[in-house]
Amino acid sequence: MNQKGKEKIPQAGQTNATDKQQLKLALTVSSNAMLGASAMVAGIALLSGMDAVVKILVTQDVSVLHILAIRSWLIVIVMLLFYVIRGQTNQLKPVRKLHQAVRSVFGIVAPLLFFLGLKYLPLTDSVVIFFTSTLAVTFLSAIILGERVGVHRWAAVGIGYIGVLIAMRPSGEGQLIGYALAFGGSLAYAYLFLSGRYLSQTETVSSLVFYYNLGVGVTSSLWIVFIARELLFVPSASVLTGITAIAVLAVCGHYLMTLAFAKAEVSLIAPLEYTAIIWAIGLDYLLWQIAPLPTTLLGAAIIIGSGYYVMHREQLKKSEIATTPSG
What we know:
Strand content: under 5%
Number of domains: 1
């Protein structure tokens, strides 16, 4: 009989071992997906709690600059101690120092505008408008990075901003200021996201987080020094406790989000960011007895749908590039 015609039949022991390996791999992937999803939801919950504490403080006329300065310095100190104790300070070493410095200095704009907006708007409205950063990333990536954006994503961006107009429907001058601040914050956050994605080619996540907070701490501290009224402000024990809570919630929330993206696929994790709206609605009702207007919910649905479609099209584009044969 021709030996070439024979097929190698795996032994029973080999088959069982292969099946066990495949089962173990599937369970690992499933476990990581569950861990990633849980970490994302928990991280968003903590950051939503942070926003609520900020709103409590700013509505009591606590200086936003002091909130940013104390929060950022606490984060910088905690991160520095953590990496020194672990002997991993090399993780904080920047490669492109000038780019990191520029990003750090301008990084204050996003939280500054968003926190100021919380003084004028319900938490839900602020979060809904801030989510337009997903849409802003799309057109800024085309303008700044020169990325090609198809007609589907441009249409989704346009529809998303229609959702913004529906969600806003401002009824007074104070609200107009709040919406403008929240919208400006979303644009600044889009810049932070894009610059982070660009720098991540050479920089570690730890260095990006560290120098961002260092920049915010230095910049806000300098603003405080050169504004006489801010110099007269001395935080009380309760305010200092609140700012410390903000720093703890920020560190833990961002750590959990980083863990989430490390453990699970972006396509699974990214949409869970929108659970922030659910937390915002609950916190608004629990702390301030404010229920969202129907227009806010409708606008939120449109913004979320547009943002999700933009992410979906981006994933399709990446898949097409990955499967296109080279040469």
